[in-house]
Amino acid sequence: MSEEEEDGSDGELANQTGALDHGSTKSEYAKHWTNRAGQDTELPPDDVDVKSEWVGTTVYLPPSLRDELNLLFQEYKYECNRHGDVDLEKLRHFYPLIVALGVERLEKTDPEDLPPLLSYIAGEYE
Description:
Helix content is about 50%, strand content about 5%. The chain has one domain (about 25-125). The longest helix is centred in the middle third of the chain and has 21 residues, at about 65-85. It has a two-stranded antiparallel sheet. It is mainly alpha-helical. The radius of gyration is 16 Å and the shape is globular.
């Protein structure tokens, strides 16, 4: 992790108030991402029933992190509706996007940098 990332000045970990900085997410991330293995992954067409065709995964989150996630979804859904870009759906678009961006971020993180990140999450959301 670079010195800029360690101190949080790039805004990705936390802003001045300690809240996650949502920054300016580019729309191409919602449609396409590439993992470390170089495999391209596309979101399914609208006619795919994600509940029956995808694998369900249960995630347990502290209440404050779950609340932040729900608020973030509502904010992005509102903005997407306002701009007419996409009808953002939680299961089809939002959760895969959150996981894909998290995977990309973790793939770029050195294992020795995980303890400070885990401490940040524990302090911020538990």
